[in-house]
Design goal:
single chain; alpha/beta; Rossmann fold; 10 strands; 33% helix; binds adenosine-5'-diphosphate; binds magnesium ion
Length: 228
């Protein structure tokens, strides 16, 4: 039987055209990522990490090649299916936490569940559950500015996993955190993959990930150049 990967990428290229210039951000990326694995994309700034994450999550369209999520080619998704994909199948975490500043932790999480179509009753239970899982049961009604950077990032993680996505995508999630807090966040990511079978794809140059990741891809000039 053919293995069904959580994420499969075949000969992916992405060329940006800036006036007369062409920038080859991705130049034939290949990857097969098993469900529930913690995969890291490493590479210096400009190596194509963000572009690859955007193409995998359907935020950007590759110039050529294909991405399959749970065995389905995303180029065949309709616009509506792409929206569903981003609301239900994939959770996103960014470096700058992008939380709504006037919303409490609870409200930030609740909003995502509302977008994913959850009922009021379900949302109420799930919001508290997921914020407890990231250790914020005492912080449900606090707003981002009342929290530390690490706590804010935990809210972002709770928000990203709330709708139980199959795949979690994080772009430089520890970029603004100190070492101790980064380690806690990476540990939490590791727990999420183990407990819920979530596939985690993280772009980072944080060397701490070595202790947590299952696979580390090195990206160089838009190509995967080695795997650990
Ligand atoms: P990384 O996330 O590893 O820093 P990026 O994926 O952001 O790398 O960028 C890869 C290459 O593509 C870089 O040369 C960058 O300048 C270029 N690039 C990224 N986004 C755009 C864009 N929207 N328009 C033009 N060039 C871009
Ligand atoms: Mg980037």
């Amino acid at each position: 039987m053919k293995t069904m990967y959580s994420i499969r990428v075949k000969n992916l290229t992405r060329t940006y055209r800036v006036q007369a210039r062409e920038i080859h951000a991705l130049q034939g990326v290949e990857a097969e990522i098993a469900k529930g694995s913690f995969v890291v994309l490493r590479g210096r700034s400009g190596s194509g990490k963000t572009t690859l994450l955007n193409c995998i999550s359907g935020l950007d369209q590759p110039t050529s090649g294909e991405v399959w999520l749970n065995g389905k080619a995303i180029s065949q998704y309709s616009e509506r299916q792409r929206v569903e994909l981003r609301r239900k199948t994939i959770g996103f975490i960014f470096q700058s936490q992008a939380l709504l500043p006037l919303y409490s932790a609870r409200e930030n999480v609740d909003l995502m569940l509302r977008l994913a179509g959850w009922s009021y009753q379900q949302r109420r239970i799930r919001t508290e559950e997921v914020l407890s899982q990231v250790g914020l049961q005492q912080w449900l009604d606090h707003r981002p500015f009342e929290m530390s950077g690490g706590q804010q990032q935990r809210v972002s993680i709770a928000r990203a996993v709330a709708a139980k996505p199959d795949i979690l995508i994080a772009d430089e999630p520890t970029g603004e955190l100190d070492v101790a807090t980064s380690r806690q966040i990476l540990h939490l990511f590791h727990q999420i993959t183990r407990e819920f079978g979530t596939t985690l794809l993280v772009a980072t140059h944080d060397p701490l990930v070595d202790d947590f990741a299952d696979v580390i891809y090195h990206l160089q000039d838009g190509r995967i150049n080695g795997e650990l």
